[in-house]
């Protein structure tokens, strides 16, 4: 009952927006005033929809993933992979609706995944995919609510050590590698290229004493100068393989990832998990800094979107933090 007589007068107890709407309680002197106040509140809901509770979004989160893909994700290089990952997440969480999905549900999903050995980096990546998806569909006007993962924090994980090869290890490895895999490794070591960038190298990318990388992971083109020896080695390899057809060849190399794995094993080199071919990129960057290279130049060569990524190699510079030796308090005591 919305109007009830009490000792003080007539009590209006009403939720004009429904169960989940705001509740109003007010005592008035007469029943007529109470009825008038009740009518005014109900009319407010009709005139101002904001007074009514928001309608629950019954769509599945997986439907929103397809919406994201069709309007945005399909234009991204990694769009298909992101879509597949998010759909797998939705299935693992029991295909929740948008109104059901929230940080509590994702936290349980994340905890279950980590309990079976999934790494924090992987879970942070999945978190980033889902959060970015909600942000994008909201920008597109296809989702009206707040991003359910906006306030959820990533899992803190210790920074992984980036392994790199010593000059001796580089020499041993190159002596073991033959044919395509030998040249692909040399391209990576000379330019800091990712393995796929070097393995898929096309003749049109090698010109003017440099290799011009296009369609990269960051989406930015970059050019890295190379020496005469490597340039001549690439063209000689192309002629040896294709003969008179060399001018019409589409690429320098066949796929040779497995050959590199065998080569690393044959050279007796042990690498951390997940750093097999990427160790060549780390090796280029590490030696570049140890030999006195500029961190900003390295950022351009590697094609990093932010300097923060490149700063992982800054500690290898010869003069990195050398001020600690000169400016620490013990040095001051010695001077005194």
Written description of the protein model:
This protein is mainly alpha-helical. It is 49% helix and 7% strand. The strands form two sheets. A three-stranded antiparallel sheet has the order 1-2-3, covered by helices on one side. The chain has a three-stranded antiparallel sheet with strand order 4-5-6. A hairpin with a 2-residue loop joins strand 4 (206-207) and strand 5 (210-213). Helix 7 packs antiparallel against helix 9. The longest helix is centred in the middle third of the chain and has 20 residues, at 120-139. The chain is elongated. The model has no long low-confidence stretch (mean pLDDT 88).
SSE layout:
Elements: E1 3-6, E2 9-14, E3 24-28, H1 31-47, H2 61-71, H3 79-92, H4 103-115, H5 120-139, H6 167-176, H7 180-191, H8 195-199, E4 206-207, E5 210-213, E6 222-225, H9 228-242, H10 257-266, H11 278-290, H12 295-302, H13 307-310, H14 323-327, H15 329-335
Antiparallel strand pairs: 1-2, 2-3, 4-5, 5-6
Helix pairs in contact: 2-3, 2-5, 7-9, 7-11
Helical proportion? 40-55%
- Provide the residue-averaged pLDDT: 88
Largest sheet: 3 strands, antiparallel
Lateral strand order in the biggest sheet: 1-2-3
How many helix segments? 15
Strand content: 5-15%
Could you tell me the number of beta strands?
Answer: 6
Spatial extent as radius of gyration: 31 Å
Order of helices and strands: EEEHHHHHHHHEEEHHHHHHH
Global outline? elongated
Low-confidence stretches: none
Q: Please identify the structural class as seen in this structure.
A: mainly alpha
**Span between termini:** 87 Å
């Amino acid at each position: 009952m919305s109007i009830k007589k009490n000792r003080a007068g007539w009590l209006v107890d009403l939720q004009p927006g429904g169960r989940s709407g705001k509740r109003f309680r007010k005592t008035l002197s007469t029943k007529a005033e109470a009825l008038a106040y009740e009518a005014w509140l109900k009319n407010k809901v009709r005139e101002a929809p904001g007074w009514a509770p928001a309608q629950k979004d019954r769509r599945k989160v997986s439907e929103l993933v397809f919406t994201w893909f069709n309007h945005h994700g399909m234009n991204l290089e990694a769009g298909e992979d992101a879509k597949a990952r998010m759909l797998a997440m939705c299935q693992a969480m029991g295909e929740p609706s948008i109104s059901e999905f929230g940080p509590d549900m994702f936290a349980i999903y994340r905890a279950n995944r980590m309990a079976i050995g999934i790494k924090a980096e992987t879970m942070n990546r999945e978190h980033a995919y889902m959060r970015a998806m909600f942000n994008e569909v909201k920008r597109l006007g296809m989702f009206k609510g707040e991003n359910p993962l906006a306030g959820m924090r990533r899992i803190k994980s210790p920074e992984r050590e980036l392994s790199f090869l010593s000059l001796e290890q580089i020499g041993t490895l190159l002596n073991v590698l033959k044919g395509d895999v030998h040249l692909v490794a040399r391209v990576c070591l000379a330019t800091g290229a990712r393995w796929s960038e070097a393995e898929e190298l096309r003749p049109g990318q090698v010109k003017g004493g440099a290799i011009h990388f296009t369609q990269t992971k960051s989406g930015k083109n970059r050019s890295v100068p190379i020496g005469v020896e490597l340039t001549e080695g690439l063209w000689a390899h192309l002629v040896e393989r294709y003969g008179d057809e060399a001018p019409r060849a589409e690429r320098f190399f066949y796929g040779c990832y497995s050959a590199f794995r065998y080569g690393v094993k044959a050279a007796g080199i042990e690498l951390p998990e997940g750093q097999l071919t990427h160790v060549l990129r780390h090796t280029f960057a590490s030696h570049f800094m140890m030999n006195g290279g500029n961190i900003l130049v390295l950022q351009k060569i590697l094609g990093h979107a932010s300097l923060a990524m490149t700063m992982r190699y800054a500690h290898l510079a010869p003069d990195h933090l050398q001020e600690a030796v000169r400016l620490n308090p013990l040095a001051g005591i010695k001077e005194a």
